[in-house]
Amino acid sequence: MSKVNPKIDLVFKKLFGAEENKDLLLSLINAILPAHQQITELVLKNPYNISDYAEGKLSILDIKAQDENGVQYDIEMQIKGTGFYGKRILYYWAKMFGSQLDYLTEEEKKKRSKKDYPDLSKCIVISLMDFIFFKDEKYNRCYMLKDRDSNETHIDLDYLDLYFIELPKFDTGLKFVQSTLERWIAFLNIAQNYTRGNLPKELAEITEIRKASAALDVMYFDEQERQYYESQQKFFLDESARMREVTDKMKEAEKALAEKASQLVEAEKMNAQKEKALAEKASQLVEAEKMNAQKEKALAEKASQLVETESQLAQKEKALAEAEKMTAETEKALAEAEKITAQTEKALAEAEKMNAQKGKALAEAEKITAQTEKALAEAEKMTAETEKALAEAVDAEQKSKIEFAKKLLKRNFAVQDIAEDTGLTIAQIQEIYNKIKK
Predict the structure, then answer these.
(1) What is the pLDDT of residues 89-131, one digit of tens each?
(2) What residues have CB less than 8 Å from 261, skipping those under 6 apart?
(3) Taking the model in full, what pTM does it have?
(4) What is the edge-to-edge ordering of all strands in the sheet holding 42-44?
(5) What residues contact residue 44 under an 8 Å CB cut-off, 6+ apart?
(6) 3-class DSSP state for residue 43?
């Protein structure tokens, strides 16, 4: 088992920041850069040097390098995040970019006395972080200057690249690793658990990773380095334990939230069912009210029809009363005629008896007969009028019944009910129905 953890910044710089291990740093950088930006050479600007300790530079553990195109790199391993980590990275980039004009190398001093804007080179900051900075599942990302609306880049503004590699987010099993970057991340996460002899084959496929594992196996610390490493390792372990505790609490909180969400979903489902039931009930009530309104309308129409029928019956009763009155008058006239007839007969008898008064009696008899005939004619006329009134009354009643039956048939009342309501026979109602259909 390796005795040192490559996530400790001291180990990281001794491993990737030493001249003899530039190929490891080159492999790591190329694994992070896109395919069209691959590099072939690196110059370490601040290689790891034991003499730095004597000058108190032990805390300066980021790696600065420059490729064959003059692009500047600042690579840092960081195990603890802060609330201002983003500003810190921007400051590193700004300082690295701006300081290019502040000094000349010995070779540059032979050619010029100062630098100007055209001498500025692109600066790339690579942050390998053993903590979560972005609130998503993406473990590898790059920020650069782009047009906000068109997403377009410009060659004169292409001088800033900020790479963020969040190591804890990459928890894919070794059998699923694919790219060189994924293998380097997996190595940094688990290197201290393996030696060069038992390095997993998925990682051993990369030559530089095999070399890095071997370098960790034999890495030596002097006393000052040992003290620094142990203090950082203790901090790393404490931070890891704290992170595990935070993670466990977050998982418990997420579980509680999930349960709460499930309960809310169930409650919402029940509420939805209740609302659906209430809606169905309301729909049923609306339908019932609609049916009641239809029934009330039908009852109102039937009541109106009954009122109309009663009015017609009242008119019929009035006509019958008038007919009965006329009949009584006719009977009275007939009685008068009979009485006159009796008087005539008596007069004729008296006329026969009184031969002496025959001419006068005959004249009187003829007069009485004429009056009788006139009375009889009037009686017959009144009888005819009475019969006509009776016929008209009967005909009006029959027509009223027929019209009422038609209305009931149009409203789909039963034939038996119509016969009971109108007094017509079923055959009459059937005949009326056939005429309506025609």
Answers:
(1) 999 999 999 999 887 777 777 777 788 889 899 999 999 999 9
(2) none
(3) 0.55
(4) 42-44, 63-67, 72-78, 123-129, 160-166, 140-144
(5) 17, 19, 22, 25, 63, 64, 65
(6) strand
